[in-house]
Amino acid sequence: MSAAVDIETRTSGLGKAALIGAAVALVLSVSLFVGARYGLLLLIGLGFGVVLEGFRFGFAGPWRAMIVRREPGGVLAHLLSIGLVAVVAIPLLATNGEELLGARAPVGFAMIAGAFVFGACMQLVMGCGSGTLINAGSGNPVSLVALPVFAIGSFAGAYHLLWWTGLGALPVIALQGTSGALLTVAALALVAGLLVWLGAPGKRAIPRRYVIAAVLLAALALANFAVAGQPWGVVYGLGLWAAKGAQALGADVTASSFWGTSGNIDRLQNTLLTDVTSLTNIGLIGGAFLVASWRGGLGKGMPDLPARAWIATVIAGFLLGYSSRLAFGCNVGAFFSGISTGSLHGWVWFASAFAGTYYGIKLRPILGLEGRK
Amino acid sequence: MTRRTTAAIGLIALAAFIAWDLAASAPPDIYDAPALVALGSGASASGAHCAALPSD
Prior knowledge:
The structure holds two protein chains of two kinds. Chain A is mostly helical. Helix content of chain A is 72%, strand content 2%.
């Protein structure tokens, strides 16, 4: 065994105990000093991070694999996970509507355009809402650059949200109760069948690790739903972080029709450790860091990207945040949670973002994001 | 430079942001914290979600 491997083994042996200790201490501290629910949500967020990074499971990569190599396995795993959540969440919303909220939003012009832009930009950054947090936690410099501007974009998109929805939107349409859950599962099965049919021969199966990740993700999403009273989301929390920053710099964010509502003013005044999506976002970053450190994945070097790739990352990061607010969510809030709680906007988001993804993939080499040849 | 450096920068920045937020925000009231689990608590959901339109 080489000296380098010796050092790596010794370091990781000590590091593992420290990593677990730090995670436990963080969850206990939040539980004791902020509230038990908040500590539990942080733990669920850490679980999301561990599963997504641990199984190398995300959204941008599998969508790219389907379009570029006609490998539907990852997207099929998404549909499996969404279906598992839907059969529990949609009936629960019908029976416990006072305590629970679905990710239900109106379909509109800005929503459709927002999802399209998001789909394109997530291929440029190679990360969606959760993916950017996961990649930032595992030290990916592209995501670390994209994350702050994603937050600023999310804040700005929310600031202008009502202007955009005023351009035209349908009322909220959502499938309800047991029949709604069955209809959702039937529609998911139909899309899965289409993807299998479009897939390349010999590449149509779902890899085992994706099946495990999909089941674990569904369990965590349901836990989040029961504990928080609302589905898993990402972009609201990021926008709140930027709103707090803007307020600290002297901006009157409450002048906005969005940030000026009483609920948002409360959240701006209270610590982000009492905000549901902020907690799971922090957990996603922490969980990804934990796994990346655990398996010694932080030794990777930096990508060799031209200046235009970094400029594209900043612009795409901002657009990811802005467009996801117009689209009423990212892959998590709209696609995953929207469909799994019966919302029509989740389905429209899926179709529009998938179309955007196609163009995002085409743009990557033009913007230098495939690295120097 | 490796990802160890960038990950450390990211985590330190996040920790600093949380520390600043805790110092700048109203102190959390543990006695006013919600029930551990929303489902079955009888309380209406009050969190914010990216799919929700703003409402007072």
